[in-house]
Amino acid sequence: MVVIAHQADPTSAKAAKLKHGSAVDAKSRRARLLGVPQSKDQGGPSRDLLMRSRNVEDEEEEEDSQSEDDEGDDQIMIDVAPTTIIESDPNTIDDQPPPMFAPLDESAAPSSKLKTEMRSIPIPPHRMSPLKKEWVNIFTPLTEMLGLQVRMNPVRKCVEMRTSKYTKEVGAIQKGADYVRAFALGFKVADAIALLRMDDLYLDSFEIKDVKALHGDHLARAIGRIAGHQGKTRFTIENATRTRIILADTKIHIMGSFQNIKLAKDAIVNLILGSPPGKVYASLRTVSARLKQRAI
């Protein structure tokens, strides 16, 4: 019997040894990166190292797959088909008929009636007699011009008024109250009725003690300076400033526009503080000249 011995190929053995060595070197590098000590018996990494490397590879694969899924979701969200914009023809819009609405019911329409209001204006005792004498001239403009209901209450010493179905203006009752109040302060009916015809007229009242505390003869002289000889100074101030002034003891009432009231009040204040009437007249001449220029 003949036995033939085959001799091993040295090149194949050397290639296998190099392949095994490269695999061992790769595992040892991975172990060094992971910080796991190598076994002393073998040149390659230990069993624990291999398990940990496998776990790391599995985690890397899971992260790669999850990132791929997220990218797919982003693509799904981004790749949305754009909405188509339909452009309308302006000619077709102009050709369409206007919308038709049904008429509003009378019950649903807002009511044009004014809310009923009532005012009570007190009258001083010394003005009750003039009120009774001029009552016809007082309530006639209130009822005809403003459409108010007016009555005089002699027991309570006041004039009561309220709105009615004939009242058209919202501020009618306020105008009527100012008109009656002006008569109660001492103005004539012909002057007070201007409050009903004009919108820029106001009433202003103040006392001499508001300007300067005066007593006795000093107060009497201040009142005399304001009134003048036979009321000459008061008339001059009224004509120069286009106002009406009532001097009732220590109280002064002025009726006019806002700017004219201020001019008249400045002149009266100067007289109270002791300015001579001649100086006040000079300032009033300048004021009257300015008012005439503005009127022109």
Keywords:
13 helices, mainly alpha, three-stranded antiparallel β-sheet, 296 residues, disordered N terminus, single chain
Produce the secondary structure layout.
Layout (H helix, E strand, L loop, with lengths): L9 H25 L12 H32 L11 H6 L22 E5 L5 H6 L1 H10 L3 E6 L4 E6 L8 H14 L3 H4 L1 H4 L4 E6 H4 L5 H11 L4 H10 L2 E5 L2 E6 L1 H15 L4 H19 L1
Helix pairs in contact: 11-12, 11-13, 12-13
Spatial order of the strands in the main sheet?
Answer: 1-3-2
Order of helix and strand elements from N to C terminus: HHHEHHEEHHHEHHHEEHH
Strand content is 5-15%
Report how far the terminal alpha carbons are from each other: 155 Å
Characterize the structure shown:
It is built from 13 helices and 6 strands. The protein is mainly alpha-helical. The strands form 2 sheets. It has a 3-stranded antiparallel sheet. It has a 3-stranded antiparallel sheet with strand order 4-6-5, sandwiched between helices. Helix 11 (232-241) runs parallel beside helix 13. The protein starts with 9 loop residues before the first helix and ends with a helix.
